[in-house]
Design brief:
Layout (H helix, E strand, L loop, with lengths): L1 E5 L15 E6 L4 E6 L17 E9 L3 E5 L5 H16 L11 E8 L3 H9 L13 E5 L3 E6 L2 H14 L8 E9 L5 E7 L8 H13 L4 E6 L20 H13 L3 E2 L2 E2 L6 H4 L23 H15 L4 E3 L14 H7 L1 H15 L6 E5 L2 H4 L12 E3 L10 H9 L3 E4 L13 H17 L4 E6 L12 H12 L6 H13 L5 H19 L5 H6 L5 H34 L6 H37 L6 H11 L5 H21 L7 H30 L16 H4 L3
Parallel strand pairs: 5-6, 6-8, 10-11, 10-18, 11-12, 11-13, 14-15, 15-16, 16-17, 17-18
Antiparallel strand pairs: 1-5, 2-3, 4-9, 7-8, 7-9
Helix pairs in contact: 1-3, 4-5, 8-9, 12-13, 15-17, 15-18, 17-18, 18-19, 18-20, 19-21, 20-21
Length: 721
């Protein structure tokens, strides 16, 4: 089979700086080990690749012709799908107008056991190691043709993903680097966990979009997290109507993911995190505490309920692994199992129930996975867990070592995956610095201690998290799981904008760094509060007043970072109309504007307090009457400070709604929008109150003291009167 499509040679030439990626290279033809950048000998070729390939050697460059053909001699259906994906990627980069008269540039997809595959490897003196069999590939790029050789359909697919990243984006010179790549993953399982139980629930189309992006970064596991949002027809109470995954949708998603070599490993909490189920009266006989969070062990209905859930799950998801959750069972021992926990210990009761779940689900013939926080809570209890289960220790902070989280399970002979985090929960934009350090260290230590997988997690604890803000950190998790050892954060940051968005200007990368700078300014001024809390807090409340004194001194710096990010994003989009993942850029813009509003809110709230203090001090001084009137207008008028904050929250609400609906179903959205409405109404009412005071001032009425206006100021401010 040959796919033929056309490309335009007449692309505008733009200087692209060299990637900062450096790799240890083994080029078999030369028989030597060298260190090189992704750069040709004459410095003309520059490219970014994510994940970084294991072995690379670039020898030069070749101009692409107007037509590219993709050849699949083996006619394997999976390889033909990969060929179509390559065809689509090339077409996306084609500017208007094509020159079809040029010779073909031929890309051939081969299995390593084929006659042609063996001959090519021998001709180039390239080995295909056992470690490459499952998902590895060889990519050979020459002047007029290229070959992708792999031992499996997955390997062919991943070779295609790398070749897609080599294709020049619109607006740059239409050339390819020539040379050889040998590549294979460091970890067998490379996954993304997505929280679908705390507010936003994606549309099926967006989940498919996620799978496409994940697969392009060589992710092979998508793990949606369910507490109550997987619809069970026999247990319909908990699942929100129109905001849960139905059996038919699950089947469609599984079939779609398979084409992209992504396995869906569903997570259904089967122990803790079940409040949305247990608040229903029908489940009152299996709750540990009244309307609580934990399923009670040893209750007659507990195991049958789990069995019913997972029987359906096993029918819908053919994955060899099922995730039972079992984390944060804080209520255990607080209710029906109080006496058991007191006599046997928390760890013993926990492990006993996990063993019962394991036995209950044994007829499904699937391996069970669980969150491994018991390893930190009670390491001695780990020995009692079934050895064929997969433990997933998790930790989301920056640490010098993660060994203590992994070792209890490794020493017990259990397979482990590691679960770093995106640092998005309760934040208006994810904290990339925390996420990068956590992902880098946890995956590094997991690889060293034999973990077979990494599951980078996204959590929406505040009900507001939007996945289009999460790509920056989660895709670093994908790269780190493929790459061996400690992955370079700096190298990833340099490559990210070009690979995901097709941005060769570096503006998107710089915008991400500006948002990291904004978070750093907040963290320096204030620890213990999230940016989400700072966004919603009333600066004149008792708590807000205490925070204000710490935020105001850094507000200008905070806002400068956020506003620079907004300008950089706008510049990138203006300069290149062909940028990819525009919805993610809109979400990034929204995050920057919300951070900017945090700073503005505390600035203006303090300016109102200071301004009104001066008004009070001068209200009877006729010499300052005009100035005093202006001060009142600056507090409340068409463009007064109260109106600025009302307008700021109104604009933020509008943008948030658009970003939400670009990826999620409408359910739950109103629970977030009402918070915007409350802030909008709050500043509208305050503006009206100050406008009334301004009118009172005009007719000579005495203005009330600060304490009567609820400005939340310290007593010494009153003294300024």
């Amino acid at each position: 089979m040959v796919h033929v499509f056309c490309v335009n040679e007449n692309a505008r030439v733009t200087q692209r700086r060299a990637s900062v990626y450096t790799f240890h290279i083994r080029f078999a033809v030369l028989g030597l080990l060298v260190l090189t950048a992704v750069l040709s000998a004459d410095g003309a070729v520059s490219t970014h690749l994510l994940p970084a390939p294991r072995e690379v050697y670039w020898a030069g460059e070749t101009a692409l012709s107007a037509r590219i053909a993709v050849r699949v001699p083996g006619q394997d259906s999976d390889d033909e799908f990969a060929a179509r994906e390559l065809e689509k990627a090339a077409k996306e980069n084609v500017p208007a107008g094509t020159n079809v008269g040029k010779p073909l540039y031929l890309v051939t997809l081969l299995r390593r056991g084929s006659v042609e595959g063996r001959a090519l490897l021998a001709r180039h003196k390239l080995t295909f190691d056992a470690s490459m069999e499952a998902e590895g590939y060889v990519l050979i790029v020459e002047q007029r043709q290229a070959w992708i050789i792999a031992g499996s359909a997955s390997g062919v697919f991943y070779g295609v993903q790398t070749f897609k990243q080599l294709l020049p984006v619109p607006g740059v010179k239409w050339v390819l680097p020539t040379g050889v790549i040998r590549d294979w993953p460091a970890m067998k399982y490379r996954g993304i966990d997505d929280d679908l139980s705390r507010g936003p629930f994606p549309t099926l189309d967006f989940q498919k979009h996620q799978i496409r992006i994940f697969a392009s970064f060589k992710v092979n596991v998508y793990s949606p997290y369910f507490e109550h949002t997987l619809l069970y027809p026999s247990h319909p109470l908990a699942a929100p109507p129109e905001s849960s995954l139905t059996p038919s949708e699950a089947a469609e998603l599984v079939d779609y993911a398979r084409k992209f070599h992504v396995t869906i490993i569903p997570q259904q909490e089967a122990f803790g995190h079940l409040h949305q189920v247990l608040k229903n009266e029908l489940y009152s006989d299996v709750e540990e505490t009244r309307h609580g969070h934990v399923l009670a062990p040893n209750q007659p209905g507990s195991l049958p309920l789990i069995g019913e859930w997972f029987t359906q799950i096993a029918q819908e998801f053919p994955s060899p692994i099922l995730h039972i959750g079992a984390d944060e069972t804080f209520d255990l021992g607080a209710g029906l199992t109080r006496s058991q926990v007191q006599s046997q210990g928390y760890g013993a009761v926990y492990v006993a129930f996990v063993n019962q779940i394991h036995q209950e689900l044994a007829p499904l013939h699937r391996r069970l996975m669980f969150w491994g926080d018991i390893g930190a809570a009670d390491p001695a209890a780990v020995a009692g867990l079934p050895k064929d289960m997969i433990a997933v220790p998790w930790e989301y902070s920056e640490k010098s070592s993660f060994d203590s989280l992994i070792e209890p399970f490794a020493k017990a002979g259990m397979e482990t995956w590691v679960a770093p985090g995106d640092a998005n929960w309760n934040e208006v934009y994810p904290i990339a610095k925390t996420a990068f350090a956590n992902i880098q260290g946890f995956i590094r230590d997991g690889q060293r201690l034999g973990s077979t997988g990494a599951l980078t997690t996204v959590w929406n604890d505040d009900g507001e998290g939007l996945f289009n803000m999460d790509w920056y950190s989660t895709l670093f998790g994908a790269a780190a799981a493929w790459q061996p050892g400690e992955s370079s954060i700096e190298a990833y940051q340099e490559a990210y904008g070009a690979v995901l968005h097709g941005d060769v200007s570096d503006k998107i990368n710089e915008a991400q760094k500006e948002l990291m700078g904004a978070h750093a300014a907040l963290r320096k001024a204030l620890t213990g509060m999230t940016s989400d809390e700072l966004f919603w807090i009333d600066p004149w409340s008792a708590e807000g007043s205490g925070v204000s004194g710490k935020i105001v001194p850094v507000a200008a710096q905070l806002r400068m970072h956020a506003e620079k990010a907004i300008v950089l994003l706008a510049g990138a989009r203006s300069a290149n109309p062909h940028l990819r993942e525009i919805d993610a850029l809109k979400a990034m813009d929204m995050g920057a504007r919300r951070i900017d509003l945090i700073g503005l809110k505390f600035q203006l709230a303090q300016e109102i307090v200071d301004g009104y203090a001066q008004v009070l001090a001068r209200q009877h001084d006729k010499a300052y009457r005009g100035e005093t009137e202006n001060m009142l207008d600056e507090i409340s008028s068409m463009f007064g400070r109260c109106q600025d904050l009302r307008d700021g929250f109104s604009a933020a609400k509008y943008e948030y709604k658009q970003v939400w609906l670009s990826e999620n179903r409408p359910y739950w959205l109103d629970n977030v929008l009402v918070r915007f409405d409350l802030r909008i109404g709050e500043w509208q009412r305050r503006g009206e109150r100050f406008a009334a005071l301004s009118r009172d001032f005009q007719i000579g009425k005495e203005l009330p003291p600060v304490s009567m206006l609820g400005l939340g100021v310290a007593p010494e401010v009153e003294g300024k009167r």
